[in-house]
Amino acid sequence: MKARTWTKSFFERVVRRPDDALEILGYYLAVYGRPLPNSLKKGLGAALARFDEHQLAKYRRDHGTFKLVDAVNLVRPPATPALTKLVRGELAPAQTWETQLTQAGTADNTAEAKSQAWAQLVRERKLGYLALLRNVRNVLAHAPDTVDELCAQLTNEQAIRRSLVFPFQFLSAVEALEKGNLPGTDKVMEALNAAIDLSLANVPMFAGSTLVALDCSGSMAGRPQTIGSLFAAVFVKAVGADLMVFSDDARYLTFNRRDTTLTSARRIGFASGGTNFNAIFQRANKAYDRIVILSDMQGWIGGGAPVAPFGDYQRRYSVRPRVYSFDLKGLGTLQFPQERVYCMAGWSDRVLEIMQKLDRDPEALVREVEAIALDQTAN
Fold first, then answer.
1. Structure pTM?
2. Per-residue pLDDT tens for 188-247?
3. What pLDDT is recorded for position 107?
4. In total, how many domains does the chain have?
5. Bridge partner residues of 251 (DSSP)
6. Which of 167, 202, 237 is the last residue of a domain?
7. Do residue 264 and residue 332 come from a single domain?
8. Is 44 in contact with 68 (CB distance < 8 Å)?
9. Secondary structure of residue 134 in the 3-state scheme
10. What is the DSSP string of 271-333?
């Protein structure tokens, strides 16, 4: 790795947690071996010197093959009281909910200790909202008598607002509960349904009109179907979007307003037909500011990308919509090479933020990269 004047600053700034430095060092040593470049050592050393005792204790990985103390010994960061304690083995264990469970796992009566630990975490409200979501199955499995408290926390509107959790982030909890019929499952599923609806308030608003076109062909079976259906239901309920489903042909679909978001998503029917992207623009019956297409991007009907129907639609309604094209299987195929089209592969909870930025400024992501200031001083 040839050093540049900005590399030290770069390595320092990309480290957000102590274990980030471990990952970077582990990769570099595995691929390039030693010696380590001075810019890498200085940048990671400066980053490690920022962390306090709690942060270092939480991510020190004492049971790993490559420990945080090994990283410190390699890069020789500026001395701090916290780093000195780490090297001397004097750091107290970080008191987190994870350590409480780890300690329970080493008790003589492990099952009872774990049950008590989970019950205490719930009753004392020591789990943040996202941690609570990730562990609903664990709570029911080990502390079923806390189900009422668990449901109360899951449907706490203020906690949902503070956590900024999006409806999509509930999927893992829902799917975990469906793997087995634990005591209290029905009650928690009801709470999750309500919580998803409450989390619609965290979905950013999009000005103007939106069409969501969901691919309901047979090739969408599995995870793409689950994510696509929920995204569609969320946009209809939170943003007021119109919904169109398409396979061999396309048609508009409406929801029962009394259904929850999750129920609406699961009532969208999927067919075994092909994928006709042309039909989206042939059936669209009004001008839209944006069109969101959720598909595996495997189009076999109509002779390839829908360039001509898209152009006809734009002329028919004198509109130039932004098109957000999601490849939900990550197969890398494109159907929309035109301007004002944003092709996204895969899925994450950041997609709404990205869409909102691109709505305001088509060059938003480019500008963010260009705005990163890299230190031009010598290493």
1. 0.71
2. 999 999 999 999 999 998 999 999 999 999 888 888 899 999 999 999 999 999 999 999
3. 44
4. 3
5. 245
6. 202
7. yes
8. no
9. helix
10. -SS---THHHHHH--S--SEEEEEE-----SSSSS-HHHHHHHHHHHT---EEEEEETT----
Tell me which H or E stretch contains 245: strand 242-246
Cβ contacts of 26 within 8 Å, gap of 6 or more? 66
DSSP codes joined into one string, 5-33: TTHHHHHHHH--SHHHHHHHHHHHHHHT-
Residues 244 and 362 in one domain: yes
Q: Output the domain CATH number for residue 356.
A: 3.40.50.410
Model pLDDT, residue 103: 57
With respect to residue 94, please indicate whether it lies within any of the assigned structural domains: no
Q: Which of 188, 180, 117, 124 is nearest to 150 (CA)?
A: 188
**CA–CA separation, 263 vs 259, rounded Å?**
6
pLDDT band of residue 97 (cuts 50, 70, 90) is low
Residues 42 and 124 in one domain: no
- pLDDT above 70 covers a percentage of the chain that reads 87
**358 in Cβ contact with 342 (< 8 Å):** yes
